[in-house]
Amino acid sequence: MVFKPRPAQERVIQFRSGRMGVLAVPGSGKTQTLSYLAARLIIESCIGDDQEVLIVTLVNSAVNNFASRIESYLRDMHLMPGIGYRVRTLHGLAHDIVRERPDLAGLSDRFQILDEHEAQNILETAATTWLQTHPEFINRYALSNNDSRENRASKMDWQQLVVQIAGAFIRKAKDLQILPHQIYQQIDRFNTPLPLIEMGHEIYLNYQRALNYRGAVDFDDLIRLALQALRNDESYLDRLRQRWPYILEDEAQDSSRLQEDILRLLTDAGGNWVRVGDTNQAIYETFTTASPEYLRRFVEEQGVQKCDLPNSGRSTASIIFLANRLIEWTNHEHPYSELRNALLPPLIQPAPQGDPQPNPPDRPDQIYLEMKKYQPDDELKTVAQSIRKWIKLHPEETVAALVPRNERGIKLVEELRKYDVPYIELLNSSHATRRVAHILVSILNSLADPSSSAKLAQAFLAVSRYPKENPTPEGQDEVGNTLIRKCPRLEDYLWSTPGNEWLNQLEAEGHPQVTLTMLAEFQQLVTRWQLATLLPIDQLILSIAQDIFTQPSDLALAHKIALLLEQFASAHPDWRLPQLIQELMLVSQNQRKFLGFSEEDTGFDPDQHPGKVVVATIHKSKGLEWDRVYLLSVNNYDFPSTDPQDIFIAEKWFVRSQLNLSEETLAQLSALAEGDTAGVLIEEGVATHEARLNYARERLRLLYVGITRARKELVITWNSGKQGKSLAALPLVALKKSWEEEYLATTV
Amino acid sequence: MAHLTAQQAAISTAPLNSHIFLEGPAGSGKTTTGVARLQHLLESGVPANTILVLVPQRTLAFPYLEAIRQPDLPPGGEVDIITIGGLAQRIITLFWPIIALPAGFRHPQKPPIFLTLETAQYYMASLIRPLLEQGYFESVKIHRNRLISQIIDNLNKASAVGIPYDQIGQRLKSAWIGDPAQKTIYDQAQECAIAFRRHCLENNLLDFSLKLEVFTKHLWKSFLVRKYLTQRYRHLIYDNIEEDVPIAHDTVREWLPEFETALLIYDSGGGFRSFLGADPLSAASLRESCDESVLFSGSHVMPPALSEFRISLTNTIQSKKALSLSSEALSSFTIEHHRFYPEMEHWVCSIVADLVRTQNVSPDEIVILSPFLSDSLRFSLMNRLNEYEIPSWSHRPSRSLRDEPATSCMITLAKLAHPQWKMPLSRFDLRCALMQSIAGLDLIRADLLAKITYKETKPEEGLSSFDRIQPAMQERITYWAGERFEQLRSWLAAYQRDAEIEPDIFFSKLFGEILSQPGFGFYNNLDAATVAAKLIESAKNFRRSIPKNRPPCGNIYIPMIEEGILAAQYLISWESAPRQAVFIAPAYTYLMSNRPVSYQFWLDIGNLGWWQRINQPLTQPYVLSRRWNENTVWTDAHEFQANQESLSRLVSGLLQRCKKHVFLCTAAINEQGSEERSPLLHAIQRVLRHTYALREAEDGV
Residue B204, by phi and psi: left (phi above 0), alpha (psi -120 to 50) or beta? Predict the structure, then answer.
């Protein structure tokens, strides 16, 4: 892999010691630059025998991307890959830290990380119980009877709201490193009731108790505990500092406080730290405690070398114009001055002359900023038809349809199916989870009812369609499926007695050798699994998984499923296969999601899928690029600007005074943790207002991310929303104007 | 007594008044000498019952047990081959009337009840339950059963080291560096330990810790007892003293002058049971109490090439200068890398098959080792080897009884035999039980049988007869299986006609009269038989440890097993003998079986388990040892140092037990689907890099 750095990249690659902050624009090659830097540090022996360059990034897909790039640079330089570096997400790093010394974090070596779904279950139980015993909460915050609307939200609405507030509360509390009993001590200081915090505290307390009971931690605990382990034992910290003399941090704009704290601790005593990011692409604030402020402040710190990567060869001049125009408009012309800091320079500059990866030739005719007001369904229909047409004309090129929310993506997929458009989903409910769970379900179903030919045939089909080194010959999966389905007595196939061998019978009937071999191989697998039914469920699943799955993500996922089912089994000792299969079916039917194990999380390459449209949320599209991009739903509901008519998802219609109760609670919690009495007692509504601003800022950046995913062609559409009242998003209106008046007028 | 070196022969035939301290690395022929000494004593006319052979763990007694079974030995009494705990129990039983009151037991007139680890867990569980409800151990993220076993472990370690049991908490607290909240947990663990001890004293219960304490504090100090012991035992052979606890060393130190002869055997690289309280340093100090000290060097086991690899690897782990390897040393081991864990397993089994089939290696000359042995790994390895028709066996001391399929089989049959217990029984349990009970019965036929002969809604009806099944279906199930099924069914029916019996007796009958018979699943199935034996022993111990004058206790015992409280995880494992089979085991378990082999396979050397000690939030083996200075804090520097030392000891111990070749296997993605890099992997890489870098430099020159 030949990498010829640009001059700006060269400055980063020359880094050898100290601290450096790099602001990079989309498509500026930061992954390549950072991986190359890591490889150089290893090659030039900047690290010792027992040391590693630590690369910290945001999502699992980036982990694999980094690892394979570094590996390839090292091979080019005739070095053994796999030694001298470690690429991790923050969760991965926290896991490494805690896993090596679980005792420092108060854990046993067999601690379990609770699956998101289980954690959610616990949270829901705790929150629902709380609400049942505190009905006054609803009276306190519900719209008064004089208010319009049907007036009464259902109990369910309130339950969901309380679950959501409590979930945010617990996450925030863990980010602030504050435990239930500490919150309790703080609350005790106030004479006035603090209903929101008291609610959060009680649910948090019960949630943690339930976790302890299971000997488990959740993902947020993992990070909190890693920091705790480092703080508790200086000599452990020293050892890790010695192990990781260089820390290269990617996507630093999405760093959370704890991430910064951990990395700061690790680099404090003379460690070397490079943080690379694009504050304009910070789009995780709403869901997490991340903030681009950490990177902004870091870059300005004394002693930090500041460096920009402003050149990008990714997109055409038209797309660069739109992206830059969005920054400038936000910066200088946004009607709400509080939002003007949402996007900041550097602007994107095209690749310099003679660059090995020049920008594609400009195609202004392939930019569509559609101002037509579509009904929601019409928007999907129009886009689906357009994609179908486009794919036919450009079978070798790549295309994505990006949506602001998951539900919208699911609807688009339904529409694409109607038109037979080939698609790949990168939505939260991932295909990989379903595939792995589906295969396991079909096998377990057959094991639960081992004499059923139909169930075994189903399992055969699922297994034979799993990609493997020697794939099942074309059409043979169907042949095998049909034959097994017709097998009258499965024991003659799997456990035949002399003279009754079903396979011999098939041979005598003249079935081809390829079919017989395939069935014989499957027989071997099934007999092994049938013997394994004597094992506890987790071991049964692992045994099956080890026989079928080859993808690391699938193996990992199977392990996670095994652990999940083991938890269920130990919580319900009377459960047997059928009940456990029920649980697994929920996974396979997509009602349960796993984070971090899906295909896209472990390295999705859009260029591998020409001729198919990738449907993704804008969040999931980060780091990826396509020849043509559709951006849907760019209206003032998904991209609000704090206009008076804007409606905010987080403000529930049944809560009085349009309060954003989550944000009100979190603001009080932060103030409480900081000992800020005035902040705790601040009037209602201030936090709600602040949250609107933050949300509007983040959605501007989300739009920016969406636009910069496109290489050559871009289509933006919007719709009128469910109530028919939504409008085109303000930035879209502004871009349309600039596009026509500035770009088209001057360029074309 | 053939094949002894001159040095070995000299020790084994040393005069009948010698006190010898024999020291040397593993494989240098020490135990062979010990066994020869035993034979010499017996042949010299020393009465067998005056000889005491002391070992820290039963597995280490094997060579001695084997020796006294030899038919050519002179007739006479029996040599006592025993652990310190076993000796304590025997003496307590003997002298109970005079010791019960001074030792603080509430009812000295009643007999003592000795607890096994699991019956101790049962009592601890019932004591802790109300405390847990009050919020004790709230922040500890471990399973309840492990919590219980760690509190018991604390008591055991305290008694083994000689720390007063009410000072455990204080000691752990003062060494703790982490979250201060943990200190409350140590206090709570202490409170439970004290409550448990009190309960034991009130009810004449003696767990391992109390046995040791009563023996060392009261019995050993009693003139009468000491006179009995010193008169009874005149000759001592004490092997693997480095694996024993300090309190045992103390006792032997005081006792030594009384013995006519003594041979103390010390493995200089040992100490693998440190996490259970073993103390090699305290063992080494016994050297001063002997008249003569002999040092064995060299190895009868390990070839020079492996010895070179061992030294280079342990040097690297200990951060000494890495030594480069000669070509011979490089060819004494193989490193095999695979991306996925199952690929690695495949490869290992194929190599084993090749060794056995084409190179005529006996299967018992091969071991497959990993830091932990999950059921899944054990199962898939054994199955794959089975496909190659290579026998294998495994041993995992920490495996809980309820996790054994053979246990669930016997429990299911017990439930069927006792409908009066009204314990739920599913068709799935039944088919598993049938699969295991009837030899060769597959899942499909077992499922059909279970479906047809048992109604979940009418458990009181039990199993219906095979004869009532339609002929076509009978044929599918096979008459052969049907016949066995009928035998089993009739046995259960016959049992129900009589009065209920105690669970251990029931299990013995079930095993002896049915399951172990030809045609049934436990026949010639040593693993299943071992589990059955454990279950019977566990049930017997349980029965003996609860009050008498009550109905049979099966309905109390079975739920305890199912909850995992009674786990039959014995501290001292009284079992296992090598067989003609490939041995699959956790690395430490293999070490403690002390049996050299020609070929070793080390699985997943990147696994942190090779390096890390088992973490126990309620206890700490180093802080609860005699060496620990009470005013010091246990930091990561200590942890790191301790882990490096134990890794070095482990690697050294394994290689010293390898006669020919070791296969080091890595998997990039481990069993759990994540990447791990252990210091073992790093050390091996360093040795190789150093070796090849040096070679390249030389070639360059």
Answer: left
State whether residue A489 sits within 8 Å of chain B by CB.
Answer: yes
A724 and A687 fall within a common domain: yes
- Tracing tokens 């207002």 back to the chain, one arrives at A689
Which residue in A736, A718, A716, A737 sits closest to A373, CA to CA? A718
For all residues of chain B together, what is the average pLDDT? 90
Say yes or no to pLDDT of A745 above 90: no
C-alpha pair distances (Å), A49 with each of A614, A620, B563, B682: 44, 38, 48, 9
- Tell me how far the alpha carbon of residue B481 is from its chain's centroid: 36
The answer to which of A595-604, B241-250, B638-647 has the lowest mean pLDDT is: A595-604
Would the CB atoms of B178 and A95 count as touching at under 8 Å?
no
> Is residue B326 packed enough to be buried (19+ CB in 10 Å), middle (13-18) or exposed (0-12)?
middle
Q: Which of A156, A182, A213 is the last residue of a domain?
A: A213
Do A233 and B177 lie within an 8 Å CB cutoff? Answer: yes
A570 with A641, same domain: the answer is no
Specify the higher pLDDT residue, B187 or B138. B187
Rounded distance between C-alpha atoms, residue B511 and residue B524, angstroms: 12
- Those of residues 75-114 in A touching chain B at CB distance below 8 A are 82-83, 86, 95, 99-111
pLDDT at A150: 54
In whole angstroms, what is the distance from residue A721 CA to residue A726 CA? 5
CB distance A108–B476 less than 8 Å? no
Query: Is there a single domain that holds both residue A458 and residue A567?
Result: yes
Tell whether A88 and A232 lie within a shared domain: yes
**C-beta atoms of A236 and B635 within 8 A:** yes
Among residues A265, A213, A218, A276, which one has the least CA distance to residue A8? A276
How far CA A375 is from CA of A343, A643, A703, B440, in Å, comes to: 30, 22, 21, 66
CA dihedral (B565, B566, B572, B578) in degrees, to 10, reads -120
Domain that holds residue A424: 364-430+602-747
Residue A317 domain-assigned? no
Q: Are B687 and B316 in contact (CB under 8 A)?
A: yes
Tokens in use for B604? 């997943």
- The two structure tokens encoding residue B528: 């299943």
Q: What is the pLDDT of residue A591?
A: 42
Q: Is the peptide bond before B552 cis (omega within 30 degrees of 0)?
A: no
Q: Considering its fold, how many domains does chain A have in total?
A: 4
Contact A616, A400 (CB under 8 A): yes
Together in a domain, A678 and A736: yes
Q: Where are the beta strands (DSSP E) in B519-657?
A: 582-586, 597-602
Q: How far is CA A380 from the centre of its chain?
A: 24
Closest CA to B435 of B446, B448, B444: B446
Residues A76 and A141 placed together within one structural domain of the fold: no
Closest CA in chain A for residue B339? A552
Query: Which residue from A minimizes the CA distance to B450?
Result: A449
| Residue A82, domain CATH | 3.40.50.300
Contact list, A542 vs chain B (CB under 8 Å): 374, 376, 671
Q: Do both A435 and A548 map to the same domain?
A: yes
How far is Cα B657 from Cα B318, in angstroms, rounded to an integer?
20
Let me know if B40 is exposed, middle or buried by CB neighbors in 10 A (0-12, 13-18, 19+): middle
Q: Indicate if A422 and A459 belong to the same structural domain.
A: no
> 3-class SS at B152?
helix
B207 backbone dihedrals φ, ψ, rounded to 5°: -85, 180
Q: How many CB atoms lie within 10 A of CB A301?
A: 10
Q: With an 8 Å Cβ cutoff, is A129 touching chain B?
A: no
Residue at token pair 């070596």: A109
Residue A687 placed within a domain: yes
Tell me the nearest-neighbour CA distance from A415 into chain B, angstroms.
36
**pLDDT tens column, A21-62:** 999 999 999 989 999 999 999 888 888 878 999 999 987 778
The pLDDT assigned to A280 comes to 94
